[in-house]
Specification:
The complex is a heterodimer of chains A (52) and B (242). Chain A is mainly alpha-helical and 52 residues long. Chain A is built from 2 helices and no strands. Classes of the chains: A mainly alpha (52), B alpha+beta (242).
Chain lengths: 52, 242
C-alpha cells in the first residue's frame, strides 16, 4: 500500500518525501480539528456525576 | 511496503491488510494523545480565559451586585441551563487554577467543554444545604484532577457576580456511581433538615475509570462581597486573569 503510494508519486526521492510529509501533516491536522472532536462524541466519557 | 527482494515488486493481500492495521493503530494512539494531552491543554486554557472574562464582566457590573455580609451570603437565582454563573478558584491547585461553573451536569454542553457543572437538584453557593458540582478528573481540562491533593482546611473559593464564597475542605468519600446521597441537602441523610452550608464536588475514580466516584466535601466559612475586592489568598488569580 505505502510502497505503491511511493511509486505513484512523481519526482526525485526528496520531492516524494516532501509530498509525503505534507500529506501526513495535513492528515494529522484534519484529525485534530475535525475527526477527533467528532469521534469523541461516540466514545463513552469517564463519567464524573452521581446518578440513580 | 515491499517485502519482495531482488527487484520483484509484489503487493500481497496480507501485506496491505497489515499496513492498514498498523495505520489504524497509529490513529488510535494519535487519538489518545489528542484526548489526554492536546485537547486537555486547549480546553484548560480556554476555560481559564472563560473564567477571567466572567470575572471582568462581574467587576464592571458590581454596582448591581447583591449585598451580603460575611456570615449571611446572598443567594443567586437559579440560572438557565448550561449558563456560566460562577468560577472556582482553589489556591492548593495553583494560582492559575480558574474554571467556570455552569448550570447542569450534561456532558456535551457542560462537562466536556471543561466546565464544572452544578447539579440542578442541589442548592446554590452560600445557600443553606448543599452546593453540589461535578467535573472531569482526567481530560477535558480536568478541573478536579488535583482533588486528592486537598488538605483539611484548604480554601475553595466560588466566585459569582455577588462576590466570593469561601469554603474549607473537610474530607473525601468514595461511592458507587449511583450514590446520589452525596448531593442531598444533608449529604447521606435523606430528608434531613439542613442547617449547614456544604459544598460537594464529585468526580470519577479511579483515575481514567468510571467505576466509582470520588467525593470532596467542604463547609462554608465566610463571604466576601465583590465591592470589597477578592480575599488576599486569591487576589493574584483574579488579577492575573484580567
Amino acid at each position: 500500500m505505502y510502497g505503491a503510494l511511493w511509486r505513484v508519486l512523481p519526482g526525485p526521492w526528496w520531492l516524494r518525501a516532501l509530498i509525503l510529509v505534507v500529506l501526513f501533516a495535513a492528515t494529522v491536522v484534519a484529525c485534530v480539528l475535525w475527526v477527533f472532536p467528532f469521534v469523541d462524541h461516540f466514545i463513552a466519557p469517564t463519567d464524573s456525576t452521581v446518578d440513580a | 511496503m515491499n517485502r519482495a527482494r531482488g527487484g520483484r515488486r509484489r503487493v500481497s493481500v496480507a501485506g496491505v491488510f497489515g499496513e492498514l492495521l498498523i495505520t489504524a493503530g497509529a490513529f488510535v494512539l494519535l487519538f489518545l494523545g489528542w484526548q489526554l494531552w492536546f485537547n486537555d491543554l486547549v480546553v484548560g486554557g480556554a476555560m481559564h480565559e472563560n473564567a477571567a472574562v466572567l470575572e471582568q464582566t462581574w467587576d464592571r457590573e458590581t454596582s448591581t451586585a447583591g449585598h451580603g455580609t460575611p456570615d449571611a451570603p446572598p443567594v443567586l437565582a437559579v440560572p438557565p441551563a448550561s449558563t456560566d454563573f460562577a468560577v472556582m478558584i482553589v489556591p492548593r491547585f495553583g494560582a492559575d487554577y480558574y474554571f467556570p461553573i455552569a448550570e447542569g451536569t450534561g456532558t456535551t454542553k457542560v462537562l466536556n467543554l471543561g466546565k464544572i457543572g452544578h447539579y440542578p437538584s442541589s442548592q446554590m453557593p452560600g445557600e443553606v444545604g448543599n452546593f453540589a458540582v461535578a467535573a472531569h478528573r482526567t481530560s477535558y481540562g480536568k478541573p478536579f484532577n488535583g482533588v486528592t491533593n486537598l488538605l483539611v482546611g484548604d480554601h475553595i473559593y466560588v466566585g459569582t457576580a455577588d462576590g466570593w464564597y469561601e469554603y474549607a475542605f473537610r474530607n473525601l468519600e468514595y461511592v458507587r456511581p449511583t450514590g446520589v446521597g452525596v448531593i442531598a441537602p444533608v449529604p447521606q441523610s435523606d430528608g434531613a433538615n439542613p442547617t449547614d452550608r456544604i459544598m460537594t464536588m464529585t468526580s470519577c475514580n479511579p483515575l481514567f475509570s468510571a467505576a466509582e466516584r470520588i467525593i470532596a466535601y467542604s463547609v462554608f466559612e465566610r463571604f466576601y462581597p465583590r465591592a470589597g475586592g477578592p480575599p488576599d489568598e486569591i487576589a493574584a488569580t483574579v488579577a492575573g486573569g484580567s
